[in-house]
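Risk register update: the risk of archive-format incompatibility is retired. Evidence:
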Amino acid sequence: MPDHAPTARDRILDAAASIMRDRGIAKATTKQIAAAAGYSEAMIYKLFDDKVDLFLSVLRERVPTVDILTRTDRTPGDADTLDGRLRATIEQITSFYRQTFAIGASLFSDAALLERHREAVIAHGAGPALLPAAVARFLEHEQRAGTVAADAPIDGVAASIAGACYLRAFLEQFYGPDHPQQPMTEFAASIMATVLPALTAHPAASTPSD
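Archived output:
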């Protein structure tokens, strides 16, 4: 048994995560979330600044962790090789997108709502651009450590990794759990086979001219 009973904040976050996954953030209301948690709406606004703060708290605390978003070292998944760190990063990003895709997709059905949400998320210092930027920072750290070539196309590789993981999550959501998918280990390996040459290739040594 747990040492402590869930706090009001825990209950609200659990309810928000469940409802947002089922209905999307556009249709999930604070009234529904409060009722599911067993509290009044006033309790939500006592603990969170607004619905966007609640949404971002769900992303931070109720979805799979992406190490590169929170760690300042270069050891995603505590792997001790570049291959292992890349594999862990790819798997973590895909899992993050898988859990969050259904939450955010409903925003795109209402242009005015999307604009309000965009402005609020940016005001909170968040947004979808943070993840590919974190991949780039991770790769730059690897570059400084000498495991990634000095002239590697960091931004392109970061975009390729984030984009591939997002597409995988989208296809999983679109086709549903019964549709056959490439095993995650094979997916990660295919992405690594694509990006590793660009990260580790060194320019050919020039030969003296005659």
